[in-house]
Amino acid sequence: MSHPRGPLSQLRRGHEELVLGLLRKHGPLSRSELGKHCGLSRTTLYDILADLVAAGAVVATTSQEGPRGRGRPAETLTLNPDAGQAIGIDFARRGLHVAAINLAHEIVGSASEPHDADLPWAQRVDLAERLIGSLTITGTGLDNAALSGSGIGALSSTGTGTGALRLGALDAIGVGVVGPVDGRAAEDDDVAAEAPHPVQVLLRERFGVPVLLDNNTRLAALGESIWGAAADGQDVLYLRLSHGVGGGLVVGGSLHRGAYGLSGEFGHITVEPGGARCGCGGRGCLETVASIRAVLDAYRAAGGRATDVRELVKAVEAADRTALTLLEGVGARIGEMLAALCNAIGPSVIVVGGELVETGPALIEPIERALHEHVMPVSRHRVSLRRATLGEVAGALGGIALVLHESPLLSRYPAGPDLAEHPPSVDRRPVTTKQSRHP
Amino acid sequence: MSHPRGPLSQLRRGHEELVLGLLRKHGPLSRSELGKHCGLSRTTLYDILADLVAAGAVVATTSQEGPRGRGRPAETLTLNPDAGQAIGIDFARRGLHVAAINLAHEIVGSASEPHDADLPWAQRVDLAERLIGSLTITGTGLDNAALSGSGIGALSSTGTGTGALRLGALDAIGVGVVGPVDGRAAEDDDVAAEAPHPVQVLLRERFGVPVLLDNNTRLAALGESIWGAAADGQDVLYLRLSHGVGGGLVVGGSLHRGAYGLSGEFGHITVEPGGARCGCGGRGCLETVASIRAVLDAYRAAGGRATDVRELVKAVEAADRTALTLLEGVGARIGEMLAALCNAIGPSVIVVGGELVETGPALIEPIERALHEHVMPVSRHRVSLRRATLGEVAGALGGIALVLHESPLLSRYPAGPDLAEHPPSVDRRPVTTKQSRHP
Fold first, then answer.
1. What is the DSSP letter of B172?
2. Do A382 and B235 touch (CB under 8 A)?
3. Residues 6+ apart with CB under 8 A from A31
4. CA dihedral over B34, B39, B40, B42, signed as positive or negative
5. pLDDT tens, N- to C-terminus, chain A (439 residues)
6. Of A76, A425, B151, B371, which has the most beta carbons under 10 Å away?
7. Is A339 part of the contact surface with chain B (CB cutoff 8 Å)?
């Protein structure tokens, strides 16, 4: 199937998205109800519905509640909750996280597995494929047997069992990786198009769909803003206190990358002028104060005993003075920095995640005090500070969100029922939608 | 003329914007060239062109360069450079600035006039109307006489002379005011729609077109990012050092408002913990260090003599040690703050404006040094620090940019040739496009 990219083909995709959006919003609808809502001509609508049903994105069922005795009962159209519309994968430094949603934008499953930091990309992608194959559909209540004849094949070699995720309607994969990602370089004529990340190439070969990429901490920010602590927040600041300190900004509902893919580097904001040397080359960066290692080092230097966050949490629970005083100071530095960013950016929600947050109120309360002391008084009661809720799959869920946000007009038509037998040609699909402008 | 707002009417406006965009990009085009570029059907294209010509947005002229001897010469379509598509007005505290552009997105004129801080809104709007009427079209080279029969009337009572700006194709007015503006409140169902600003009501009554509103310093940021020091910058941080200290963020080419219209409040970021009390209620805010008054006060406290910025500039030019040392310290505080924001937001350009920048390198160089010292090394050579170039009309130009950015699908069809005789009914047009969703 060809994918012309002129205005008319975009128009058609817009119409498809309109129909899918209406089914997402209203649930099952008859053809005539759909017609009323979408404003398309009968011919156009029927044409689009036929294609969506053929692709497995939409299911037509005979309504039980139609008016009796007035001709044949009306057909009702529903999103196919069994179609995996998007997959997110977080290739973290020492572990892999995957998640999938269906066309109704419900999370249908997630899985994680740790691995060594030096695992090669090819093996990480193998692992990702295996984890995706292990995802089973939960909570849809749909009769899978009813769809078995619909021609939707399973992509994953291990995903053929009953209840396994069906990838026939897979749209795209959203991927998080460690380090700066400049998603826009390829759009800028002045800059040579960024080479695709190896994981983009490998995943595209494996799944035959577009692979969108971003920094995994930024994706966690997007994930938390959609399904997590800041659900429905349009302007969200996410800070992660882990082995590194970083974060991301969601601005007007969209992930903010910055001019060179270098936004959200909260860990490298100077909080102690002339302080400790940081890995970035600077001095007194927040990461030298608030990373797991920095906090544990400072705790031991003050006479405390803890080799990991769990032991630190125990010390806090035992009301250890040294631990509480230390976290009070760390929290104050964090809160002061957050206040400055609030004044500049104006988020409605600040989400703090990462392992260090497991120390609870001993850290969160001093953060909140310093934030409230230094933010503009007029904003003081408007910004809400919350703990992250998505845990380690935040990045994978953010990958899905990236697909939903960045490619609303991506075709609903995937590679077809049997990719294994007919692998996609190299230029059938772009690695990312953006790079397609510079073939 | 009715303005239905369903998907199909949006589609039509999208087609109009497509045609206007092509003429903006390619210059004069024949109908068949337009047809090739836009992908619309002949019928749809001709229909849209007829309406655009009737509205005065597009001019049809007989091409001199058409192939001879092959039927009648082809008609060429051009944007009407004589149509004032958008007006920007900056209602600053003690002065008024206006600017206008034509459909080709060329600035056709600007004007300023100071006034007392307590001038009532009605009189400010009178003054705005007078200033707009005084704008004359420059540099278009178009024969005005050729258009005199086209039915495009002049709106402004004082703008009837030859060469005066014609407002027949006026789309909207973008307005900057002092203080926080939350442009999105009216979109949020949880929040009562913000009452329109008095200036919105008055201008709409006067001109009969939508009036978009934002904070005037943020609009200056947008103006500088389009026509000024950061022209074509997609991610721009603008800082204004004036009687107050404020600024704005342009994110991905769009103005960033923040969740409650409170973004860009750089003046209230704490730069000296426990420092001087600020008007906002905080302590040690940047404004207590880097506003005109703060700098002059500190200069006099250190034994210097200057009652305004001009005298301070003279002291700097005379290499006055006290002045140079003071600005060195002020610049360092500014640069440190800018570095923190760079790490968080990742702009490609930082623009510094406001009267205090007239002190030149004595202030800019210490800002740059502190910025480079504290920004992440990886970003150090990517972010560019520049002085603002638009001067006092930056806000008015930003108002125009607001119109172009926020209402790309606004109808090209204005009130008609003679608004004075047929004033628009109250609900014919929304005060802003956004509020129209909550009538």
1. E
2. no
3. A45, A46, A49, A74, A75, A77
4. positive
5. 334 444 455 566 667 777 887 887 788 899 888 888 877 778 888 888 888 888 777 888 875 554 555 556 678 898 876 666 789 999 998 999 999 887 667 777 899 999 999 999 999 999 999 998 887 544 333 323 222 322 222 222 223 333 455 555 577 899 999 987 875 433 344 444 567 888 999 998 888 888 999 999 999 999 999 889 999 788 999 999 999 999 999 998 888 988 888 899 999 999 998 999 999 989 999 999 999 999 999 999 999 999 999 999 999 999 999 999 999 999 999 999 999 999 999 999 999 999 999 999 999 999 999 999 999 988 888 899 999 999 999 999 999 988 877 654 333 322 222 222 333 332 323 323 222 223 2
6. B371
7. yes
d(CA B237, CA B345): 9
Note whether B293 contacts A: Cβ–Cβ < 8 A. no
- Number of helices (H), then strands (E), belonging to chain B: the values are 13, 13
ipTM attached to this prediction: 0.73
Which secondary structure element, helix H or strand E, spans residue B246, and what is its range? strand B245-251
Contact B378 A18 (CB under 8 A): no
Nearest residue, CB atoms, B258 vs list A264, A282, A345: A345
CB proximity A409 to B under 8 Å: no
Which long-range contacts (C-beta less than 8 Å, at least 24 apart) are formed by A147-153? Answer: A147/A56, A147/A59, A147/A80, A147/A82, A150/A56, A151/A54, A151/A56, A151/A417, A152/A56, A152/A83, A152/A417, A153/A417, A153/A418, A153/A419
Q: Choose the closest CB to A268 out of B262, B343, B383.
A: B343
Tokens of A38: 């979408």
CB contact at 8 A, B57 and B169 = yes
| A264 interaction partners in chain B (CB closer than 8 Å) | 344, 346
Partners of residue B99 on adjacent β-strands: B88, B110
Flag if B259 and A348 touch (Cβ within 8 Å): yes
